[in-house]
Amino acid sequence: MRRSEDWGRLGGIGIAVLAAACVLLFLGSRLLGAAAGPEAEIITTLKQAEHDGVSLPVPGAQAPLVSRKLQYARISVSVAPDGQRAEAFATLDFEGALGATTVSTAGVEAVAFTRASGRWKPTSSVAPRLVAVVAALEARRQALAQGRPEALSLLAGPGGDGGAG
User: Under a CB-based contact definition with an 8 Å cutoff, are residues 109 and 129 in contact?
Assistant: First the structure.
């Protein structure tokens, strides 16, 4: 009888360990956010985006911008007083492609975050400045390819003089 009691006790311990592992797996980032604050959760979200093949939709482009390398460094986070909005500033090292065009940059990125359903999520993209620059360059490329000078003058800004004057 003693052995069956030992097996029962071991089975109960095993179930408890498995349940604790499941809780950590599914609620780990929320627990991290609660324990370390929103800054840690936002930084973790950006660092989790660092993998090959991240697809960033570019307005006006036929294909998305796809990363071969996406890496954030020197991340700082500013949380709004209401605790529901934040902005992360970081350096971004990016290599990828927009269709047949190779895109490579090292610059500063500002990523807006909102808190929804208890989690911090990027408002628009994990690289909104990069997407905006690539969208502008793609619009310029399309205007040149289609021979539309009026579209080029709209891209130049107010007055169509590229800001000179």
Answer: yes
| Distance (Å) of CA 123 to CA 6, 31, 44, 97 | 53, 22, 16, 23
Write out the CATH class of domain 38-160.
alpha beta
pLDDT in tens, 20-44: 776 666 666 555 555 668 899 999 9
- Taking the complete model, does pTM exceed 0.85, yes or no? no
- The two structure tokens encoding residue 77: 């986070």
Residue 61, φ and ψ in degrees, nearest 5: -100, 150
Domain edges within the chain: 1-36, 38-160
| 119-122 β-sheet, strand order | 55-56, 65-79, 85-98, 101-116, 119-122
